[in-house]
Amino acid sequence: MAITRAKKDTLVAEISDALQTAKMTVFAQYQGISVADIQELRRAAREANVTIKVVKNRLVRVALASNDTYKSTDTSALTGQLIYAMSSVDEVAPAQVLDAFAKTHPALQLAGAFSGEGLALSAAEVQALAGLPSKDQLIGQVVAQLLSPVHDITNALSGNLHALLDGVSAKATN
Asked: Of 3.30.70.1730, 3.30.160.20, 3.40.50.720, 3.40.630.10, which CATH number belongs to 5-132?
């Protein structure tokens, strides 16, 4: 059934708003994936604060052209049946969600992405992003690196203190 002009305009407005707030939009080819699998992907995406949309590529091109950030973005990769994953919270979350799903469903293939700055990314670049740790993991790693000298000093001091106490207690018992 054909979509009415009003519904198309509404979809373009929704996509345009989502692109405006998205830090990253990743798209993948999904031909051969069942509706049940798509619903499973949507559930996994919701847990990671990622929105999944299945929209005609032409409507996405119209939304990109109407957005100042994406006006000059190359849209040549928007071919075939594509599913779009967007996140306004984390830059790498859409790539990670689609990549994790693609590992169990090989019919899903990453095709590319649009960064929040309007840059078009290739499938290889998206694959590299999917391998990065999440924002929370990176923050945890930085905090651990910052605290490691403090832990080293306290361990060294407590080791020397224990050795001193062992020596004193050995002298006291003799």
From this structure: 3.30.70.1730
Query: What is the spatial distance between Cα 110 and Cα 155, in angstroms, rounded to a whole number?
Result: 47
Cα separation, 139 vs 154, in Å, equals: 23
- What is the CB neighbour count within 10 angstroms for residue 47? 8
> Which tens digits make up the pLDDT trace of 55-98?
999 999 999 888 888 888 888 888 989 999 999 888 889 999 99
End-to-end, the C-alpha distance of the chain in Å comes to 96
Q: What is the mean pLDDT of the chain?
A: 86
Can you count the helices (H) and strands (E) in the chain?
6, 5
CB 113 within 8 A of CB 101: no
Question: What's the CA gap between 152 and 92, in Å, rounded?
Answer: 33
The answer, as to whether pTM is greater than 0.85, is no
Q: How many Cβ atoms from other residues are within 10 Å of residue 52's Cβ?
A: 20
Q: Do the Cβ atoms of 28 and 102 come closer than 8 Å?
A: yes
